[in-house]
Amino acid sequence: MTTRALLRPHLRPARHLATAATVLLCWAAAANAADVIRTIDGDRLAVTVTGSSREGLTFEDREGSEQQVSVAEIVDVQFDGEPQELRTARNLLARGRSGDALAELAKIDAGTAGSLTDLMKADQAFVTAASNAESALLDSGNGGRLRDAGREVLAFAKAHPQSFHYYRTLELVGDLLAASGDTAKASEYYVQLAEGPPAMKIRAATARGRMLLTAGDHAGAVAAFEQAEAIDATDPASLEQKRLASLGKARGLGAQGKGAEAIAVVNQLLDGANPEDAELLGPAYNALGDAHRAAGRLQDAALAYLTVDLVYNTNPAAHAEALAKLAAVWDEIGQPERAREARSGLQASYPETSWARAGS
Q1: d(CA 343, CA 338)
Q2: So what's the pLDDT on residue 359?
Q3: Domain CATH number, residue 282
Q4: How many whole angstroms separate alpha carbon 245 and alpha carbon 139?
Q5: Residue range(s) defining the domain that contains residue 35
Q6: How many of the other CB atoms lie within 10 Å of CB of 30?
Q7: Residue 294 in domain
Q8: Would you place residue 275 in the very low, low, confident or very high pLDDT band (cuts 50, 70, 90)?
């Protein structure tokens, strides 16, 4: 495969959110409402957030009547008057930079923290707990850290039972338990996650697939990912989750030695992807590299991992994985100097990850 073919532009069809919230966007903006809810379609709803529940956020339109946006449609929310550090930390967490998010949160002084609204305080608590959880997952060999992060997430859920982050807390606890090896308990949380909207059902099946893949049950993982793909839901949030399920299926197929099938799955996904969606494309090219490697196409595998290293490197988890696998492939190809360079980059940038420890 040529570099040009590998780096070809990817197009994703425009998507539209058919909810009352979108209809009210121009009304709310005209009213100069202070809070901003960003949706999966890229809409920015300038509104006044009035409450939170497990199903989403409520807000007032210009007429003063309350509306709701579903949790499945929410990418993030920014509150008027919140500390810049909280806003920055939230954005860093969304980009996979959990360690940097925690450092940013630490800059919020006690006086500022004490003046936050209840919604802001809840969001600060969630971003803190989720950042610790994501950091622990990057350091997945540290059982104590995984347990501590799980307790913190559960404490948040107990303190804020009606948070719109509720379903995300279920997924995080399940992921932390799965990483610690307690797959039975993790499955219980994924079952609870599946009780949410369709997009959450897909997330639950995908999470279970990831867990099985890590446990070495590749056939079971593929079945779980296919279950996620088959869920009857076509809203934007569900389609986004189905793309992630397809990536998981490709990894499972590759692990079973079905490299050609895995390559076909990833290429189909890449053909419809937004070229600026680094959060999807980083893992996608890693999956493509795995598929090529499983098929014995080491040069193509190296090119896929290099694409993550050079182009889609903003997601730390995906970048660390790419560097680790790139080092291994360079060794297999017979280029030890390039392998050392990849390992050096991994150790320098992501020393606390399990990928770095495994290669040290």
Answers
A1: 9
A2: 64
A3: 1.25.40.10
A4: 23
A5: 20-79
A6: 10
A7: yes
A8: confident
pLDDT in tens, 300-324: 999 999 999 999 998 888 999 999 9
How many angstroms separate the CA atoms of 281 and 305, rounded? 11
Which amino acid belongs to residue 183? T
Residues present in the chain in total: 360
Domain count, the chain: 2
pTM of the model: 0.83
CB 153 within 8 A of CB 173: yes
CATH at residue 65: 2.30.30.100
Instruction: Indicate whether 218 belongs to any domain.
Output: no
Residue 12 pLDDT: 34
Tell me how far apart the alpha carbons of residues 253 and 250 are, in angstroms, rounded to a whole number.
5
Q: How far is CA 274 from CA 25, 108, 256, 271, in A?
A: 24, 35, 29, 9
Q: Is residue 12 situated within a structural domain?
A: no
Residue with more model confidence, 18 or 94: 94
Domain assignment present for 163: no
On whether the CB atoms of residues 281 and 312 are closer than 8 A, the answer is: yes
